[in-house]
Specification:
The structure is a single chain. The chain has 329 residues and is an alpha+beta fold. 30% of the residues lie in helices and 26% in strands. A hairpin with a 4-residue loop joins strand 2 and strand 3. Helix 1 crosses helix 2. It starts with 10 loop residues before the first strand and ends with a strand.
Length: 329
């Protein structure tokens, strides 16, 4: 990937070098998040996991790193693509920067380079249906929001991070008759993953997961089946909440937070209180593990009414994210 740094003569570009770059990338992401007020801590281990499971992306050619003359990483951009099941082929355009360079032209240069490279990839794809560039940004990342808008991207949908600020007064919601929560063992992992995949097929922007996605699921660094709450309808999964605890992030931020994530309900069991009961059970489990609060991410326009459910359970929005798109001519 090429990038024009002619207006930034103190910076230079180079290719991605592999896992050896992950410590500097993790530090850059963490510094940026702290500077803008996003509660996120990146680690080399997280990046090792993410980059081991990239699809439709060769970071050796689909990525560019920017550093100072002294060799300090100050930004990077990467692009990949995926095919939405009932929508366009989407070409990701995103970048990360060190907060020290946010007032320079680097954010725009990185996004422009990512978009130009994504266009070259899109031009090689002969597919029916539309193609779009896509990026996403927190409402706290004004410099990137402005850059997307300047490049002609428009907002198309929204997500949020929500936090339940305490684990007191958890409702006593019960599962519908016929469903039971049972401990999870290794032999059930494929069934649980397949059920989650099927449940999300009618959600916005859904792309069909691959075997590489299944390996990503298996190798998720914070996976802990003892935290999961899975409702079984005989041998089938009616719903699930696969909670996890990111101990490294908790230690770095001085908090005790659990994540009630990967929430899904099989379509024939929706609107019967399955998700509510599983979330409440998950909150009680996290409290028993010594957690103080719980968080999750949600598409605010989710067709199942998930956002409203989480609000009713005491979760409040702490950050909002915008997905931007731009049609590829």
């Amino acid at each position: 990937m090429d990038i024009d740094l002619s207006s930034l003569p103190d910076l230079r570009s180079r290719p991605y070098r592999g896992a050896v770059d992950h410590p500097a990338m993790a530090e850059l992401i963490t510094r940026w998040c702290r500077a803008v007020g996003i509660d996120e801590v990146a680690t080399s281990e997280d990046l090792d996991h993410n980059y081991a499971h990239l699809e439709n992306c060769d970071p050796a050619t689909d990525m560019v790193m920017v550093e100072t003359s002294a060799g300090r990483l100050v930004g990077y951009t990467r692009t990949d693509w995926e095919q939405a099941l009932d929508g366009p082929r989407k070409y990701a355009v995103f970048a990360k920067i060190d907060p020290d360079v946010r007032s320079t032209g680097l954010p725009m240069a990185l996004l422009r380079a990512g978009r130009d490279h994504a266009r070259l990839i899109a031009d090689t794809h002969n597919v029916d249906g539309p193609k779009v560039f896509e990026g996403w940004v927190s409402e706290r990342e004004g410099v990137f929001r402005k850059a997307y808008e300047t490049l002609g991207f428009t907002a198309v949908t929204y997500d949020a991070t929500m936090v339940r600020p305490h684990l007191d007064d958890i409702p006593g919601a019960a599962l519908p008759n016929g469903l039971k929560i049972r401990p999870v063992d290794e032999s059930q992992l494929r069934t649980i993953w397949e059920a989650d995949k099927e449940a999300f097929r009618d959600h916005w922007g859904y792309s069909e997961p691959s075997e590489k996605d299944y390996l990503r699921f298996l190798e998720f660094p914070h996976r802990d089946e003892s935290l999961w709450k899975v409702a079984w309808d005989g041998d089938g999964v009616a719903g699930q909440v696969r909670s996890f605890i990111n101990s490294d992030e908790n230690a770095a931020l001085g908090r005790q937070r659990g994540w009630t994530e990967f929430i899904s309900t099989r379509r024939d069991w929706r609107k019967q209180g399955v998700a509510r009961a599983l979330i409440c059970a998950s909150l009680r489990e996290l409290k028993q593990r010594g957690m103080i609060d719980a968080a999750l991410g949600v598409h605010t326009e989710n067709p199942t009414g998930a956002f409203q459910l989480y609000e009713s359970l005491g979760y409040v929005v702490t950050d909002r994210y915008t997905t931007f798109q731009q049609p590829i001519d």
